[in-house]
Amino acid sequence: MSTFIPSAKEINRKWFVVDASGKTLGRLATKAADVLSGKTNPKYVPYIDMGDHVIVINAEKIRITGLKSQQKVYRRYTGFPGGLREESYTRLLSRRPEKIIEEAVKGMLPKSKLGRAMGSKLKVYRGDQHPHQAQAPEVLEVQA
Length: 144
Description:
By secondary structure, the protein is of the alpha/beta class. The protein is built from 5 helices and 6 strands. The strands form 2 sheets. A 4-stranded parallel sheet has the order 5-2-1-6, covered by helices on one side. The chain has a two-stranded antiparallel ribbon with strand order 3-4. Helix 1 packs across helix 4 (97-106) and helix 3 (89-95) crosses helix 4 (97-106). It is globular and about 55 Å long.
């Protein structure tokens, strides 16, 4: 018997759309990361990018539980001395809600060239409109 290894021609990528209205950030991020990495595909191979595209709409209506809305802080480093920048969850939600979902999902993907390729298939939009109607995305259900 030989092991089945899919080639690039055999990978059919689908498009999924997720409405983030009232959904919990962690549950949405894990579901999106599974689809992006291809773990929902029966032909899944860990060393090949088998994942599908994910579109997240209504990013500003995402919710988080507990006291995280007051305590959560996003940090980034500019590369210069004293260049640590911090921004609270509430401020980032009002300024760039897409960034919150992108960071949550990309944090669940591998930290490698393959993980960056998976992360590039994630599209996040603030409102309920997106420019990917031509791809005929299917609705992906996530528990609230």
